[in-house]
């Protein structure tokens, strides 16, 4: 069943191009318009939505954090992202104009299910973004948008994360189409870019050996930091989560802009820090700000492990290691940038002799609150 791979996780990392492609398949008609047949929420209701709240746990919540940037940008609807267990117990403000998006690989996570029930009791519409057909969360939701990642066996989520981002982006583009926020040709172009991501994810996987070799050389690390900005921030948090889950190493993801407000105190000689660098072609000087962050931490002794776009020569002087990823629009970069972080965590755990498919104390699906 592992198809010749050394673990399910390794196989599932290699399944990721397919997961992205399959999640996009069949979502457009002959005119290139997005059609979501499985969505059973009235279009008029979706047009009247004035707030979106994403609820999820773990990796699925980080997919939600990524989606917030894209959906707000495309649809101009405020998006909140909240851990399902926090949402449920804080008297959240939801009403009939609120669209709650519940993201879950298994569709069985009890914390997420309880939040779904609570949201519906308050009159919100709930749309489930779920990987497992016929599971409980979609059954109890108003609508479902399935991710088509195929069964995910390894406890630590990989391909489901890419599929969740992809599905949430399709949802964002659909809402933009429905509400007239974007011209049809802009939506078609973004969809084409999204379709092209499967090929680029494959490229990142093919470059995995260098990441593995780096991980093997770092098996004695006892704490690893991850920095990212904009959509790279949730990627940093997901990279840290993978390392905690698989290698039992204390890891934390930070917003790069927050560095000087605290985390830089953690930097001392040899401290490994991953940095996800935004596209140099993006707006808002995000790229140069993050390059300055790399320079600052390196000056304080950090060992910098940089994820950067092909051709981004600005990072070279400050990077101890560079993991190159293909060029992509800023909002789509997470689908590429997370892959070296997954491979790194898996390879480091393997080098420590750990079971990457069944990490200690964790369950694939947590069906208790
Ligand atoms: C955790 C799993 O218990 O639940 C994580 O170990 C997962 O990998 C999280 O991200 C949420 O699970 P689900 O099935 O709701 O996406």
UniProtKB/TrEMBL annotation:
SIS domain residues: 41-181, 214-359
Active site: 364 (for fru-6p isomerization activity)
Localization, UniProt: Cytoplasm
Catalyzed reactions: D-fructose 6-phosphate + L-glutamine = D-glucosamine 6-phosphate + L-glutamate
EC nos: 2.6.1.16
Top-level lineage group: Bacteria
EC class name: transferase
Single GO MF annotation: glutamine-fructose-6-phosphate transaminase (isomerizing) activity
Record keywords, A-Z: Aminotransferase, Cytoplasm, Glutamine amidotransferase, Repeat, Transferase
Function: Catalyzes the first step in hexosamine metabolism, converting fructose-6P into glucosamine-6P using glutamine as a nitrogen source.
Complexes and interactors: Homodimer.
Protein name: Glutamine--fructose-6-phosphate aminotransferase [isomerizing]
Parent-protein residues present: 266 to 634 of 634
């Amino acid at each position: 069943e592992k198809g010749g791979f050394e673990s399910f996780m390794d196989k599932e990392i290699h399944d990721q191009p397919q997961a992205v492609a399959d999640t996009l398949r069949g979502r457009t008609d002959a005119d290139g318009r997005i059609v979501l047949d499985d969505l059973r929420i009235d279009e008029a209701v979706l047009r009247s939505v004035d707030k979106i709240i994403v609820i999820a746990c773990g990796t699925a919540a980080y997919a939600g954090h990524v989606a917030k940037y894209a959906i707000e940008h495309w649809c101009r609807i405020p998006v909140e992202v909240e851990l399902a267990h926090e949402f449920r117990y804080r008297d959240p403000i939801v009403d009939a104009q609120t669209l709650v998006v519940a993201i879950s690989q298994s569709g069985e996570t009890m914390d997420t299910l309880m939040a779904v029930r609570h949201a519906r009791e308050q009159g919100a519409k709930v749309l489930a973004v779920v990987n497992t057909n016929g599971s409980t969360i979609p059954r109890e939701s108003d609508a479902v948008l399935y991710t088509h990642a195929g069964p995910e066996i390894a406890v630590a989520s990989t391909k489901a994360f890419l599929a969740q981002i992809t599905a949430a982006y399709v949802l964002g583009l659909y809402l933009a189409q429905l509400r007239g926020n974007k011209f049809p040709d802009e939506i078609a172009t973004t969809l084409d870019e999204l379709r092209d991501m499967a090929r680029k994810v494959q490229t990142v996987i093919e470059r995995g050996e260098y990441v593995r070799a780096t991980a093997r050389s770092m098996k004695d690390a006892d704490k690893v930091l991850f920095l990212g900005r904009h959509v790279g921030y949730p990627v940093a948090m997901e990279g840290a989560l993978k390392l905690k889950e698989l290698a039992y190493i204390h890891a934390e993801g930070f917003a790069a802009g927050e560095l000087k407000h605290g985390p830089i105190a953690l930097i001392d000689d040899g401290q490994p820090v991953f940095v996800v660098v935004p596209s140099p072609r993006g707006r808002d000087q995000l790229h140069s700000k993050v390059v300055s962050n790399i320079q600052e931490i390196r000056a304080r002794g950090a060992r910098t492990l940089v994820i950067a776009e092909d051709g981004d020569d600005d990072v070279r002087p400050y990077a101890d290691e560079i993991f190159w990823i293909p060029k992509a629009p800023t909002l789509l970069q997470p689908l590429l940038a997370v892959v070296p972080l997954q491979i790194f965590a898996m390879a480091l755990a393997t080098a420590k002799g750990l079971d990457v498919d069944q990490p200690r104390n964790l369950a694939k699906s947590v069906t208790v609150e």
